[in-house]
Amino acid sequence: MIDRTTAPALSSFGDLSLKFPDTVKLKNGIPCYVIDGGDDEMNYVSIFLSAGSLQEEKPALATLTSMMITEGNESMPSREVAEKFDFYGARKSAASYEDCTEITMRSLNENFRHTMTLLTQCIMHPSFPSDEVETFKRKLSSNISMMQERVSYIAYMNMRKHYFGADTKSGHITTPEDIMAITRDDLLAFHKQHFTAAGCSVVVAGRIDEQVMDVLNNTIGQWECDTPAAPKPILEKHPTSTMLEIVDKPGALQSAVMMQIETVKRTHEDYLPLRFLIKLWGGYFGSRLMMNIREEKGYTYGIYSALQANPYDASIVVGCECATQHTWNVVKEVKHEMQRLREELVPEHELSTVRQHMLSAAAKVHDTPIDIARYVASTFSSGIYPEYHNEQLKVINSITPERLKELACRYLDESQLRIVIAGDKAQLEKIMK
Questions:
Q1: Residue 282 pLDDT more than 80?
Q2: How distant, in Å, are the alpha carbons of 5, 349, 351, 359, 398 from that of 8?
Q3: For residue 73, what is the DSSP state?
Q4: Of 22, 125, 346, 375, which one has the fewest beta carbons inside 10 Å?
């Protein structure tokens, strides 16, 4: 009988290193990353196109295009496309990022010829029917209107306004009016310019045999590369001088607190060690911010810190929602935890806990071929590079308390901490400390 009074012994994860897949060229030269494995006769395809928010001429144009790209094509209306995908048991989705749009599909191998043909037709020849464009515009503008009622969204968007600059694509606060100003011609022009074979990359995972590769070559691999790839977009940043803003939401019962510090990009030698520090600070349930501000003081249900990065930029962010009366105490305690990291060495037991937490997350990358494919796909959307995973493992296993303190002194600088609070301004100013 199992003795349930004794915890099982801890054991190491073993080798978690990842071999980044080699690139296979499809017939037309599109790079394809193949991750073969798994027990099920199914596959996962992720298609990236150079069409993101940094390339758009109007706010939310990339978002609206991604919402509609798989909703129909020149030879088949959206209802029929949806019925076909359902019939073949396939799932599809699309999302836009800073400089790319990702279109994904899960499909059974036996139906892959049908589903991939259908998906390719939607990508190459979308129809964007006028009536459906209006429907999707109303849906997106309605979503934004609802989000604008949330203090967390208000704080987030106003932080972007200050961090990037209101006159930049990344800092502009999209409004329902922006959405309704988009026309069908805008969608067609954006698609023609940015949805091209020259700006396309493919990641495929699952039971990948010769037949699956033949389907890829005879569908997306037939897309003519008749235009050169567009140059990488430039991220504009015109940050404001405002380091503290209270955005008024009269009558709000809670405040949303957003904090942000610009930091080094993924390729910098300090980035991966800094990621460990930010995880320890507020990146998991047992982190310092959670234990202090939630568990000990009860100011918030949850608070987090994260190291956010894309191919062009990186920053340290902290966010939470709390009752209005606790707002300034939250700010005070975040700064207090920053100071502790600058002044004190992290105890070995805490270092070990964070190390195991991050190794557990790294191990999940290996769970299935699809998980590996998602990691590979992040090289396009997040700027992760092929050796990132293995370099991260080295840092996790070797980092010291002294190195963490050095990083905290260098990067957790209160003078660079930008703060945006959304809530009832009159109440917040009344209790301001």
A1: yes
A2: 10, 19, 21, 18, 25
A3: B
A4: 22
